[in-house]
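Tutorial, part two.
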Amino acid sequence: MKIELSNQKKKQLERMHDSARDGRVRDRIKAVLLASEGWTNTMISQALRIHETTVTRHINEYLQSEKLTPENGGSQSKLNSIETMALIGHLSEQTYFHTHQIVDYVLSEFEVIYTVAGMNKWLHHNGFSYKKPKGVPHKFNPEAQQAFIEYYRELKQRDEPILFMDAVHPSQAAKITYGWIRKGEDCIVYME
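Running the prediction step on this input gives:
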């Protein structure tokens, strides 16, 4: 299929090709440029190593609306907006360590079936990431810590040596594992 392009349009498409990072966009641009140079769809498909029907679709979409970028963003959420907000609220209060646990919760709470891969995409789309919670000592006292910092600063002002002594003993602290936590938020785990 022959496409008529002006020299200016060809140069514009070549600049777009040079700056595009997505290989699918570059393939679409190449298909359009090669078609404008008289190549057949069969020749373009062999050169780009894509199916001939794909070349035809790329060229037709360009002719209809000058489309050069794919629009595949996945399927729509299976949860409605109320269920989505309820699940986001629940996940903000409770940290799950495995995606299959969230899939089970959604099935029991909303009677909606998700695959683990589908739920991973849903979690990322709704601002969650799989990260490690912040560990805080069980007997952590921020006021006592601030008082010690101020006292230590006063001690450093004196012209005397400061000696630190502490006993060393094995730790039986809990190991912190990863979980689904909202991006930009920290999950605090108090360790004993």
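The chain has a mean pLDDT of 85. In part three we will examine how such features are distributed along the chain.
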